[in-house]
Write a structure and sequence with these properties.
It is a single chain. The protein is an alpha+beta fold. It contains eight helices and 23 strands. The protein folds into four domains: 43 residues; 92 residues, Nucleic acid-binding proteins (OB fold (Dihydrolipoamide Acetyltransferase, E2P), Beta Barrel), CATH 2.40.50; 89 residues, Nucleic acid-binding proteins (OB fold (Dihydrolipoamide Acetyltransferase, E2P)); 153 residues, Nucleic acid-binding proteins (OB fold (Dihydrolipoamide Acetyltransferase, E2P), Beta Barrel), CATH 2.40.50.140. The strands form four sheets. It has a five-stranded mixed barrel with strand order 2-4-5-7-6. A five-stranded mixed beta barrel has the order 9-10-11-13-12. The protein starts with a helix and ends in an 8-residue tail after the last helix.
Length: 427
């Protein structure tokens, strides 16, 4: 049924204007409220009585975005709390994961139902919506929650404790024990205007991840060893980021947390398949230096690359000279673009912006800089460490370290051959 049909049906039942009903529904649906729950909300707003239907009792594995209202008996794995802006007002929600013997599913509860991680509960009349391509349970005003007498045994960890390496965008209600590596205080343009935040990098024995603390807590100082309870993870610029909210608790640990020194080493295709990584290392051959490398100009306002004194955000600007390399790296399994900033490019080129300007003036052509860089890189194998982002335009690795390997060529060839799938040999 289309939105117009839902609006017309409701307007007829309630005796109100269809366009007003349709506007109410659209306002709710833009926040991913399931259509059945949105209709109930509109009924209540206009003085009608909520209708009811018998929800279907289901195993978690059988729940799909088209399941409508369902009843499930599940174990609570995690529970996080945060505040969101909903229809212009701040709304506190609870969210996390539930599971039974068949699988696990995320949930959002629009009110406090009183369950905690480890509880086994029967949830009745929960609406199902699609979130990030997966079904999610929405627990609203018409949902019932009852403690179950027999615990549901599940093959999943209960409570939310996690290593950084296992965190993924969308995770909610998790707890981590970390060392704070870097800290920076910033002022950003937030939803309520200028907002002071604290950001930086966290590490444990498994990985490093960026963080944002929206409360700017004093405990988050460089070198601090902390337990952070009730954090959520969102994707920022293609990589997971740990977020601390007003509901996050921070406590000093009395044990050491050793920060991992080396980045996770991966094949390029494996790294790209993750959708984004904060700290990863790949090894491959530079097969091409792309256009936009060498001596470039950046907007003095936003730092974007400008062409013909035109910034796509600020229009006419007087560009500032800078250096950059965009090198296509291939390891035999996949490709990505390694992006080197000014300092790493200067190391590769053998000089900074002044040397590049002088070379361009003498040749009366900026391309002489990128040509020289290409001569130094193409055909050689390099180890690159940095932050990987993947979007519709491809995979880009913003390099923090870039160095030519010193491996023996014969050893590299053998590793490559060993990594290829076996093929039969015709007789």
């Amino acid at each position: 049924m289309q939105l117009d049909d839902h609006a017309e049906e409701l307007a007829s039942d309630l005796g109100v204007d269809k366009e007003e009903v349709k506007s109410d529904l659209e306002n709710l649906l833009q926040y991913s409220v399931p259509i059945d729950e949105a209709k109930q909300s509109v009924r209540r707003k206009h003085g009608g009585e909520a209708t009811s239907s018998t929800p279907t009792a289901m195993d978690v594995a059988d729940v799909t975005p088209d399941s409508g209202a369902v009843t499930v008996t599940v174990r609570v794995l995690t529970k996080g709390t945060r505040s969101i802006r909903y229809q212009g007002d701040d709304q506190v929600i609870r969210e996390g994961q539930l599971a039974d013997e068949t699988g696990k599913i995320s949930y959002t509860a629009w009110q406090e139902f009183g369950f905690e991680p480890g509880d086994t509960v029967t949830i009745g009349n929960a609406n199902v919506r699609e979130w990030d391509g997966e079904p999610e349970l929405n627990l609203g005003a018409n949902t019932t929650v009852a403690m179950a007498s027999d615990p549901v045994e599940v093959p999943y960890e209960v409570g939310g404790d996690a290593d950084l390496v296992d965190l993924r965008p969308g995770d909610r209600g998790h707890n981590v024990e970390v060392q704070v590596l870097d800290v920076e205080d910033r002022t950003i343009d937030g939803r309520d205007g200028e907002t002071d935040i604290r950001s930086g990098v966290l590490a444990d024995e498994t990985a490093r991840l960026p963080f944002t603390d929206w409360q700017r807590r004093e405990e988050l100082t460089e070198g601090a060893i902390l337990r952070l309870e009730d954090v959520y993870v969102r994707e920022f610029r293609g990589v997971p980021q740990v977020n601390l909210t007003e509901f996050t608790t921070v406590a000093t640990l009395d044990r050491e947390v050793e920060a991992v020194e080396s980045a996770t080493r991966m094949r390029i295709d494996e790294a790209v398949s993750t959708g984004g990584l904060f700290d990863v290392e790949v090894v491959g051959n530079v097969i091409e230096v792309r256009d936009g490398s060498g001596l470039i100009e950046r907007c003095p306002e936003c730092g974007r690359v400008v062409q013909n004194d035109q910034c796509r955000v600020h229009g006419d600007v007087q560009g500032e000279d800078d250096l950059r390399v965009k090198a296509i790296l291939d390891d035999g399994h996949g490709t990505l673009t390694a992006v080197l900033g000014s300092d790493l490019t200067a190391e590769v080129y053998g000089g900074g912006v002044e040397k590049a300007r002088e070379a361009a003036r003498e040749a009366m052509d900026k391309d002489v800089v990128s040509d020289e860089i290409s001569d130094r890189l193409v055909g050689r194998e390099f180890r690159v460490r940095g932050t990987l982002s993947v979007d519709e335009y491809g995979a880009n690795l913003d390099a923090d370290a870039f160095a030519e390997t010193d491996d023996d060529p014969a050893d590299r060839a053998k590793r490559l051959l060993d990594s290829l799938p076996e093929r039969g040999v015709a007789e």
